[in-house]
Amino acid sequence: MRINDCTTLERDGGIAIITVDSPPVNSLSVAVRKGVAEAMMQAAGDSAVAAVVLICGGRTFFAGADITEFGKPVIEPDLRALQQIVEDMPKPVIAAIHGAALGGGLELALVAHGRIAVPSAQCGLPEVRLGLMPGAGGTQRLPRVVGAARALEMMTSGDPISAAEAARLGLLDRIADEGALRDEAVAFARAVAADGAPLARIRDRPLVVEQGLFDAFREANGRKFRGLMAPESIIRSVEQGIALPFPQALENERALFCALLEGAQSAALRHVFFAQRQAAKVDAISADTPIRPIIRVGVVGAGTMGGGIAMNFANVGLPVTIVETRQEALDRGLRIIRRNYENSAKKGKLTAEQVAQRMACLTGSLALEDLADCDLVIEAVFEQLDVKQELFRRLDLIAKPSAIVATNTSYLDIDRIAEVTGRPENVLGLHFFSPANVMRLLEIVKAAKTDLSVLATAVALAKKIGKIGVVVGNCYGFVGNRMLAARHAQAEAVVTEGALPWDVDRVIRDFGFAMGPFEMRDLVGLDVGWNRATSSGATVREMLNEMGRHGQKTGGGYYDYDEKRQPTPSPIAEQAVLDFSERHGGQRRIVSDEEIRDRVLLAMVNEGAKILDEGIAQRSSDIDLVWINGYGWPAYRGGPMYWADTVGLPVIRDKLKALHATHGEVFRLSPLIERLVAQGKDFASL
Hints:
Layout (H helix, E strand, L loop, with lengths): L1 E3 L2 E6 L2 E6 L9 H16 L5 E6 L22 H9 L5 E5 L2 E3 L1 H6 L4 E4 L4 E3 L13 H9 L1 H10 L3 E2 H7 L4 E2 L5 H15 L17 H8 L1 H4 L4 H12 L4 H16 L2 H16 L17 E4 L3 H11 L5 E4 L3 H20 L5 H9 L1 E4 L10 E4 L5 H14 L5 E4 L6 H5 L8 E6 L8 E6 L5 H13 L3 E6 L6 H18 L3 H11 L5 H8 L15 H7 L12 E3 L5 E3 L1 H14 L8 H21 L6 H12 L8 H8 L1 H15 L7 H9 L7
Subunit structure: Monomer.
Main location: other
Keywords: Fatty acid metabolism, Isomerase, Lipid degradation, Lipid metabolism, Lyase, Multifunctional enzyme, NAD, Oxidoreductase, Peroxisome
């Protein structure tokens, strides 16, 4: 029997089977909620029905709420009303899970009287990733099943757990064979009905919490939760729920949820969520743009970047040939890759078999000719134009005509690299971020002659290897590093004028970054891109490099580092700053935190506006994704362009004009900002 467009009700003997099929992920939309509620009512009133199985069609169980409904008037039944119907059913309800039971989907499963899943299924409450918390009983029911400590870990991380782990914790009652979920769920429902025992509800279980758990959990995760509101709200909901009757605990949870939903952090994180969906939609690429098959990948360079890049493809089972110039360098690179995988195995993230499988995908070579059968070749060699051009000349003669040849350059002109080949249409930039096997961002750089099929293939491949691919245009530094250069310039300028490096870092950390620009430079290495032969003490960074202070790896840069690499402000670096200021800036002055923040961040926004105006980025949210996933912009602030919109472009314009008047051409206002203000629009409107 069809209940509505997405819900059916049928019987298998005395078992009612409610099936929901609402692609793509069976989100708990109004239509889904109404369909399930009506089917439950009919099953409850049918004397021939002894038990109910709730199952989904398509590729997954309910994968969460319909996020497009957030902030809109509630249409009944809402999720909590639907849960009440299921939980109060006079007949046992079995949730049959495949794919993923996430967010509201898992909260709905938690009010069923039993849960069964296939081995490949996952369960989780990922609301924290949207700046939210479970709002339909998750903070009260999950701790009663898996224990308060494990529930806090799951909810504050948002990470799903496997079916095996869920069964071990008691979250699942049974594991079904793959492909047999429906039959085994029906059998489970029959067994529960035949047992005749009173229906067990999770809400009736005691919530047992060990003494001191909440304070210890806060302390252990303080750094990770810094600046975030949702994790603390989750902890408070569980903590406060102990002393409350269950209905009041649910109301308390709901109040905390609603406060987050109406807050700025969740709005920003929802913006990021939709930005990730939008990034894959590239104006120039249509549905019929062909995707080229990528069966084998080549990587030139086995260093930090090359090795990390190769791991991305081995992770998804693609064979990779890694080419180096010296056996020693090749052996070292493969050894580091193996160590990375083995470290993951020690942490329980991989099995020994998976480590072996991934290493088997990797083949080392000292001959570029071994890349002749690769469908994609990525170079990760020294960041110098003539070096890369010479390599591309050689690759052009070796790679098969259909092969895509990509450069991992961070700054260089890709058109200059492509022009030395006979196949510029097959050349593009694939700018991975270090460490390439960890960082999610991939800037996909379209050169002037890059074929659209090459671009479409890169977008699809980014998704396959788990990256957030953002298509950008070709210019110095592309999107991320071009804006980073503007940030660095202002960070160095305020230090020359009167601030100290740790002042700047503190202001940027207070804004929400994990580290400031000078801490980041020490981490990366002050000597990256520095040449001793041409160094002339033209910047504080050059002066420090000339002293042998290259950052953390030498025990000192802008900061001094102990044996655990813990930083303290360096008197040596401070003196270098004072000496440099005396030679280049004259009288030092007090630079306020507000000025530091405005100059550093507004320089980025202004540069981002120029990037948009030039068509280097398709949309402002693409810029936001680059900075959140590649440079540590706090996600709960939505990215630099979103943040500028929240401040208000008229305010941004006025501040930039004031900075231009004081500090000159570097702050000349982007014409785009001027136009948008005049039209009463913002970056998001583009």
